[in-house]
Design a protein that fits this description.
Layout: H1 18-32, H2 44-51, H3 55-67, E1 71-74, E2 78-81, E3 86-89, H4 96-101, E4 107-118, H5 121-127, E5 134-144, E6 147-157, H6 166-171, H7 174-180, E7 186-197, H8 200-206, E8 213-223, E9 227-237, E10 241-244, H9 249-254
Parallel strand pairs: 3-10
Antiparallel strand pairs: 1-2, 4-5, 5-6, 6-9, 7-8, 8-9
Helix pairs in contact: 1-3
């Protein structure tokens, strides 16, 4: 991409840091498609000349966009625009497999651990079980087109599916197994979301820097009769996954959200 004119006048002296103004300008270029997916954007030197600023604010703006998952730096290729984040709404039952397939990508899973453990603490509380009750626990890495996206730890009471195997949780979605093999009729989910940062283990598994922003999703799934049957914790890459909520006018008013 060539830059031929000077745009230093675009940046205003309004007390907003230059790097922040540049970040917003660059973000809009990505959102509008002016900087296309896979394209190598102008290098730092060209951007400094174009906007009439020093290299520091430009580099800081680009660093932030890399951390947010909008750009990536590739050795020998410069800074490139990444594909849009994988989006999912918060309505209905969450299915990673369906989510990824609907976006034309190939979902896969790596099983990291599979065992029977006593329910303790938050797990026992989520299921309403006495401490020490047997639960199946498995940890798996969810990938899309071989890119690691989600580190997931799942608990299921042994009484729900005592003969569940490692092969099962690799080959098929858990909800599909529960409904078709065990006759579990799923009724509702309770989900808790909060931003956090990746620790050393999570960063290594997800192939992201330690301390990178991630999303923690805790989920309790209930069967008919309001019986909790699945409790899971998922660490999702903040640079590749995001969620949205779609509100009707009626719901917006009930929540006090201005139209």
């Amino acid at each position: 991409m060539k830059i031929e004119e000077n745009a230093s006048g675009v940046l205003s002296q309004n007390g907003i840091p230059l790097y922040h103004q540049l970040k917003e300008i660059f973000s809009e270029k990505i959102a509008s498609g002016e900087w296309e997916v896979g394209e190598t954007i102008p290098n730092e030197l060209l951007l400094t000349r174009y906007y009439g600023v020093s290299r520091g604010p430009v580099r800081q703006a680009l660093d932030l966009l890399v951390r947010q998952g909008l750009l990536t730096r590739k050795q020998g290729k410069g800074t490139q625009v990444l594909p849009p984040k994988i989006e999912s709404d918060l309505g209905g039952f969450y299915s990673f497999t369906t989510l990824i397939q609907n976006r034309g990508m190939h979902p896969s899973v790596q099983l990291l651990a599979f065992d029977t453990v006593p329910a303790e603490g938050s797990v026992a509380h989520a299921f309403g079980l006495p401490s020490g009750s047997p639960c199946l626990k498995f940890r798996r890495l969810r990938l899309a087109d071989q890119e690691p996206l989600i580190l997931e730890t799942v608990f299921v009471p042994e009484s729900v599916c005592s003969d569940l195997t490692e092969i099962d949780v690799i080959a098929r979605p858990l909800y599909e197994i529960l409904t078709t093999r065990y006759g579990v009729v799923l009724q509702r989910e309770k989900q808790f979301f909060e931003p956090t940062i990746a620790d050393e283990y999570e960063a290594q598994i997800l192939d992201i820097p330690k301390g990178a922003p991630v999303l923690l999703l805790q989920n309790i799934t209930y069967a008919v009769g309001d019986r909790p049957v699945v409790f899971s914790k998922a660490i999702m890459r903040g640079d590749r996954v995001r969620y949205y909520v779609e509100l009707t006018t009626q719901i917006s008013k009930s929540l006090g959200v201005a139209p």
